[in-house]
Design brief:
Elements (H helix, E strand, L loop, with lengths): L6 E5 L4 H12 L3 E6 L2 H13 L3 E6 L5 H15 L4 E4 L14 H26 L6 E6 L12 H20 L5 E8 L12 H5 L9 H12 L10 E4 L12
Parallel strand pairs: 1-2, 1-4, 2-3, 4-5, 5-6, 6-7
Helix pairs in contact: 1-7, 3-4, 4-5
C-alpha cells in the first residue's frame, strides 16, 4: 500500500480518530491536508507530522459551510497539484432525550455529520476524477447506524445516512474510477487507554477496546489502489462487539 506523494484530505483531523488517520497517512509518505475548525488542534497535528518528517498543511474548515469546503479543495490542489483521497471524518454528537432536543441542535448535527459528507465528496470528486488512476473516498459512519440506545436520534440519523450516501456515491462515481466506502467504528478510545477496565476490554471478541490506529489501518486498506475492487461497502471495525449476543439474566 503505497501512498507516497498522494494528497490526502482528512476532515476533523485535529484530534481523536481523525488525528490518528492523518498521522497514519503521513507515515506512509502522503501529503496530508489537516482540515479542522479549531486552529490550535489542527496546527498541532501538522506540527507532529512535520516533526516526524512528514508533509502536512492545515486548512481551517467549517465542514458545515459549502464555501469552506470549496476553499479546502482549492487549497489542497494548489499546494500539491492534485487530490487523491478524501476521508470524511468530522462529526459531533448530541445525546438528549427526544422531547428535549431542539431542532437547532438536530440541524447542527445533520449539517456537521451528513451534509458535510455530501459537500466534501462532491467537491473532492471534481479534482479526483482528473487523475488517470482515479482515487478514493472514505466516510466515517458508526455502528450506531445499525443499533441504538435511547436519546441518540440525531447522531443515529446522520450515521445511517452516511452509510446510504456511501453506496449511492459509489454508484455515481464509478465511471470516474473513484471508490467510495464507509467505515463504522465501534468503541474507539480516544482518551487515556490505560484507564479502561478489564470489563471494558472483555466486552469485545477481540478482547480489547479499539484505538484510532485501528480505524486508520482500515482507511489505508480501503484507499490503496490495489484494493479498488472494494467499493460501496460499510466496513464495521468494532472488535466484534455488534456480533455479540447479549441476554439479560
Amino acid at each position: 500500500m503505497c501512498f507516497t506523494k498522494k494528497t490526502v484530505i482528512v476532515t476533523g483531523a485535529g484530534k481523536g480518530i481523525g488525528k490518528g488517520i492523518a498521522l497514519a497517512y503521513a507515515k506512509k509518505g502522503a501529503n496530508v491536508i489537516v482540515a479542522e475548525m479549531e486552529e490550535r488542534e489542527g496546527t498541532k497535528t501538522v506540527q507532529i507530522i512535520k516533526e516526524q518528517g512528514g508533509e502536512a498543511l492545515f486548512v481551517q474548515t467549517d465542514v458545515r459551510r459549502e464555501r469552506d469546503i470549496i476553499s479546502l479543495m482549492q487549497a489542497a490542489n494548489q499546494a500539491y497539484g492534485r487530490i487523491d483521497i478524501l476521508i470524511n471524518n468530522a462529526g459531533i454528537s448530541v445525546f438528549k432525550p427526544l422531547f428535549e432536543l431542539p431542532i437547532e441542535e438536530w440541524d447542527d448535527v445533520i449539517q456537521t455529520n451528513l451534509r458535510s459528507v455530501f459537500l466534501g465528496s462532491r467537491e473532492a470528486a471534481k479534482y479526483i476524477r482528473q487523475n488517470e488512476e482515479g482515487g478514493a473516498i472514505v466516510n466515517i459512519a458508526s455502528t450506531r447506524a445499525m443499533m441504538s440506545e435511547p436519546n441518540s436520534e440525531a447522531y443515529a440519523a446522520t450515521k445511517g445516512g452516511i452509510v446510504a450516501l456511501t453506496h449511492a456515491l459509489a454508484a455515481s462515481l464509478s465511471n470516474d474510477r473513484i471508490t467510495v466506502n464507509a467505515i463504522s467504528p465501534g468503541w474507539i478510545e480516544t482518551g487515556d487507554y490505560s484507564k479502561l477496565s478489564s470489563m471494558d476490554h472483555e466486552q469485545h471478541f477481540s478482547k480489547r477496546v479499539g484505538k484510532p490506529e485501528d480505524i486508520a489501518q482500515a482507511c489505508l486498506y480501503l484507499t490503496a489502489r490495489e484494493n479498488d475492487f472494494v467499493t460501496g461497502i460499510n466496513l464495521v471495525v468494532d472488535g466484534g462487539m455488534t456480533r455479540k449476543m447479549i441476554y439479560e439474566e
